[in-house]
Amino acid sequence: MASSEPRYVCQECGHEAHKWMGKCTGCGAWNTLVKETESADVEAQVPDLSTDGQNGTAAAQNQPTQLTEVEMEGESRLKTGVDELDRVMGGGIMQGSFSLIAGDPGIGKSTLMTELGGYLPGRKILYVTGEESKRQVKLRAQRLGVDSDALYLLAETNVQEIANAVDDVAPDLLVADSIQTIYRPDLTSAPGSVSQVRESTASLLKLTKEREFSTFLVGHVTKKGTIAGPRVLEHMVDTVLYFEGDQNHAYRILRSVKNRFGAANEIGVFEMREDGLREVPNPSEIFLSERGYGVSGSTVVCSLEGTRPILVEIQALVTPTSYSTPQRTVTGFAAQRLQMILAVLEKRAGLAFSDHDVFINVAGGVKLEEPAVDLGVAIAAASSFRDIPADTGSALIGEVGLGGEIRTVSRVEPRLKEAAKLGFDRAVVPENNLDRIAGDYDIDVTGAQQLKEVVDVVL
Ligand code: TYD
Ligand code: MG
């Protein structure tokens, strides 16, 4: 592209266009294209990661190496001592790793990062704050009971200055809070724009890999086109963590959506309290603690989040509608999936929801995406529809197919173990899973083939 020619960059996905358009042709989002200009000499200075190491001095060192000859010494993980965080990171923070922690503003990212300062005694942490003053960070640290002389604060947003501070401090861990405030002075676009976010990240990434410390980059999730979303960074970084949760609930879930050093989709559960985030080592107990007994529309599912089975209550409320189009309202579950399940219940189990509103709520502000929770959602809806409480001692596990069949789920054994641990008497699992269960889990296991069967047995 010719120098200083304007380009229009989608702030959601980073797609570039030559002229402004209302809709991004890359991701289909509306009103996300923003004009960004760069001058010729600036483009030349932008480090291009794709050609990195293929020119100049780096090329000399960059020879192919036999797998067996690759040096592994120095590969170590920093254990934070907080099991919930270590698990999500795949067993600790890998030295030299570059992680992105993303989430809605106010969810607790800065809190978690400040607490990290207290978790790693003897390790130097450089906390770069672009949003708050040092005093504000200190105030928060005091509130959190973090008082470490190995925690260095820097209120700075210029990447070059951050690099200088890294030279001075030589940290084991760098926290950059947040990437939307950090900028490279050689680029003309504003901090928070896609170019700035991407290039600043590229610079910090290079610094991290060269000096072999670890970096946590904090990123706010886009509020419709105002700031560049962390999505444009996901492919660049080693680990992407999402900090999710409902602001109105105390529980926060840290989820690894990508991890080059461990299992993806692993979750850690925290509770936000007055004095900061506390880990929740037994999330199933918490998510079931407010469960209603003897009430229709409540079931318990066992969802596998990463390697960890979690029992969660599903609540359904089905009431006659007063609208021409009945309402479908879901929290913590996909609305489309619910539509499908209701259609299957109608066609295969004879429960017609067409003149009923259906509300589904996953307790504790948890978001469930695994198909194995389908059965629990279906039975909760059926239970409320018939106004008959479902058996409270049963945990429901199974994916619902369009034919009303209960389909096999992955790794049923850890789920059974968790249900037995929490005192459930019975688990309903897909029939086809039965012969894959090797151990004895101190729980009655019932195999199910058809949704109708389960509706008849459990209700
Ligand atoms: P914060 O970490 O600043 O959010 P983020 O960096 O993701 O934008 O957390 C902000 C919220 O957390 C704020 O509403 C206050 C609350 N909070 C607590 O409840 N307890 C605490 O100890 C702290 C430090 C914050
Ligand atoms: Mg913050």
UniProtKB/TrEMBL annotation:
Please list the GO terms describing molecular function: ATP binding; ATP-dependent DNA damage sensor activity; damaged DNA binding; hydrolase activity; zinc ion binding
Per UniProt, ATP binds at G103, D104, P105, G106, I107, G108, K109, S110
- Motif mapping: RadA KNRFG motif: 258-262
Name one cellular component (GO) term. Answer: cytosol
GO BP: recombinational repair
Could you tell me which residue ranges the RecA family profile domain spans? Answer: 74-221
Gene3D superfamilies to which the protein is assigned, alphabetical? 3.30.230.10, P-loop containing nucleotide triphosphate hydrolases
List, as start-end ranges, the regions of compositional bias called Polar residues: 51-64
HAMAP family (UniProt xref): RadA_bact
Its biological purpose: Plays a role in repairing double-strand DNA breaks, probably involving stabilizing or processing branched DNA or blocked replication forks.
The record's domain comment reads: The middle region has homology to RecA with ATPase motifs including the RadA KNRFG motif, while the C-terminus is homologous to Lon protease.
PANTHER family with a match to the protein in the record: DNA REPAIR PROTEIN RADA, DNA REPAIR PROTEIN RADA-LIKE PROTEIN
Designated name of the protein: DNA repair protein RadA
Q: Which organism is it from?
A: Salinibacter ruber (strain DSM 13855 / M31)
